[in-house]
Amino acid sequence: MQTAFPWKPFILAFMLLLNACSSPGQEVGAPPAVQDSTFGPLTPRRVVSTEALQRGRVLDRNDSVLVATRPVYLLALPTRPPLDSLKLNRLLGWRDSALWRRIEAALPYEGARPKGGVKLLLTNAEAKKIQDNQADWPMLKLEQRTLRSYTTSTGAPILGYAYANAQAFLNLAQRQQRGRFYRLRNGGIESYYNGLLTGHRGYAHPLLDTLGQPHGSWAADTAFQQGQDLHLSIDAKLQAYAESLLAGRKGYLVALDPRTGEVLAAVSAPTFAPGALTAPDRSGTRHKLLENEDMPLLNRSATLANPPGSVFKLVNAAVALQLGAIKPTTGFRCDQSLINCVHHHPQARNLSMALQYSCNPYFYQAIRKLIEHVPDSLVADTTTARHRNLAAWQHYAKSFGLDTLLGVDLPREQAGFLPTPAFYDKARRTRYWKFRSIYSLSVGQGEINLTGLQMANMMAIIANRGWYYTPHFVRSIGENGPLSRFTEKHHTLIDSANFEALIPGMIAVMQRGGTAATSNLADVGITVAGKTGTVQNDEGDDHATFVGFAPADNPKIAIAVYLENAGFGATAAAPAAVLVIEKYLRGYIAPKRKNSERRMKYRGLAYEREHR
């Protein structure tokens, strides 16, 4: 039997068009007129509220406005000089070379001559100087517009952009065939919360008689909702400070509050100003950012997953304790024939000493014992035992929020990776692989990949002895708090006692004899629990990593630092991490670490001068 074609929806759609109102404030969408026994024919209408929508602002955790829609001024320069650039610089309070630098940043390429001339974005104070001196500068013209404005030069990957405001940038990326490589449609908070920031218009649905009088409604009215403000968890001053430390490097730094999952700072270096991607006078800057070989447009902390190195020994130790492969008192010989150990140290007689010295042979033997354990039921089938044990290792490690999307409130988050038995069966082209062919897992290398947000969250889990809130950047939407999923507590599969067993070793890392002893904060009374890592890199210098939290007995900040091609974690990543910890907990840096702070900031300034 043949099914009749569903004509009814098509007829209804046609009638909707015929009955659509044509007067201002009304839209297509009302059903056909209806007949009422008392009032006669009643015509449905869909009336749109005339109240103007205002896009919500973005504020930091201390209510400093970071992004807002504001009236701005564009200064149109004459297409043909003469123009006294030195005099104009002084009028606007700029450095002597600032005008030409800004013109260079505005031009799409060197030597370009835009049809409408060059237009530069001015602050209100700068625009007033032009207005007050217009008689002396008749060739200059001011144009007022309403634009999405950034009041900060930091936090670009977090703040992001609304796609509607960044079309020039996205089109340029597409023309240069760089968009897919950079995963550019990752417009940060602005795009993730676009609907809430934009708000929505209100709609009334009255039934009107022939005199235009309402008699009930044909559908429920929709309330007008103004764009809502987003209050971030980011501390703008801490963000700026962290960026100043990493500006001359490639890598990331993520700091969060382990008690709430709120991200305090998230740096992806090299850094750039958030307004560069949307400002009408930064076309040249966008071109340089896309072509920069250091890839500043990658949001390294959320969209790039890397081998974590020795910091992953913390996860391995927790899983090994949980599955009974080791105890806190277990010791192993530092057998260099198994795997190299770059640190010369005393024998690791227990887990705390193994963490303090970051002994590679210790963790090789601990994970080998876990993977090669053969229960009595499988005594004749060691291959199946290895598969089961690796699957158990992966299952427990995954409960840290690894090998999956955490669900942070940023677009394009990556999941990272933890290998499974099936993965190795395929990669080794046999199911009879042995531990020796996968031993790199024991020191956080090989196929393991984690993002910066996952590494920082890993620290929050240990700080909390086994639980976490999903990391997030927005602590409240208007007056309503964060999205509900960010208030749900998640638990790992590891007992709290096994996390507790890690803490003494992490504290010892920062003390005399530990791998990060020179980066402790004992002089200011702060006990840091941490772990250094050095990630082997076959294509250049090794990468430096550090993870930690403080204070150790009452954690208020958890942190992860990853610096590409920077060498040892103890000498590169750890100093940056403790400076951020001290800055957050105390508000200022003790004299003892001022030289370290100056060296890092100087490197950042040198990088900016080179790439300006």
From TrEMBL:
<feature type="domain" description="Penicillin-binding protein dimerisation">
    <location>
        <begin position="54"/>
        <end position="213"/>
    </location>
</feature>
<dbReference type="Pfam" id="PF00905">
    <property type="entry name" value="Transpeptidase"/>
</dbReference>
<keyword id="KW-1003">Cell membrane</keyword>
<dbReference type="InterPro" id="IPR005311">
    <property type="entry name" value="PBP_dimer"/>
</dbReference>
<keyword id="KW-0732">Signal</keyword>
<keyword id="KW-0133">Cell shape</keyword>
<keyword id="KW-0378">Hydrolase</keyword>
<dbReference type="InterPro" id="IPR012338">
    <property type="entry name" value="Beta-lactam/transpept-like"/>
</dbReference>
<keyword id="KW-0573">Peptidoglycan synthesis</keyword>
<keyword id="KW-0121">Carboxypeptidase</keyword>
<dbReference type="InterPro" id="IPR050515">
    <property type="entry name" value="Beta-lactam/transpept"/>
</dbReference>
<keyword id="KW-0645">Protease</keyword>
<keyword id="KW-0961">Cell wall biogenesis/degradation</keyword>
<dbReference type="InterPro" id="IPR036138">
    <property type="entry name" value="PBP_dimer_sf"/>
</dbReference>
<feature type="domain" description="Penicillin-binding protein transpeptidase">
    <location>
        <begin position="251"/>
        <end position="577"/>
    </location>
</feature>
<keyword id="KW-1133">Transmembrane helix</keyword>
<protein>
    <submittedName>
        <fullName>Penicillin-binding transpeptidase domain-containing protein</fullName>
    </submittedName>
</protein>
<keyword id="KW-0472">Membrane</keyword>
<keyword id="KW-0812">Transmembrane</keyword>
<dbReference type="InterPro" id="IPR001460">
    <property type="entry name" value="PCN-bd_Tpept"/>
</dbReference>
<dbReference type="Pfam" id="PF03717">
    <property type="entry name" value="PBP_dimer"/>
</dbReference>
<feature type="signal peptide">
    <location>
        <begin position="1"/>
        <end position="25"/>
    </location>
</feature>
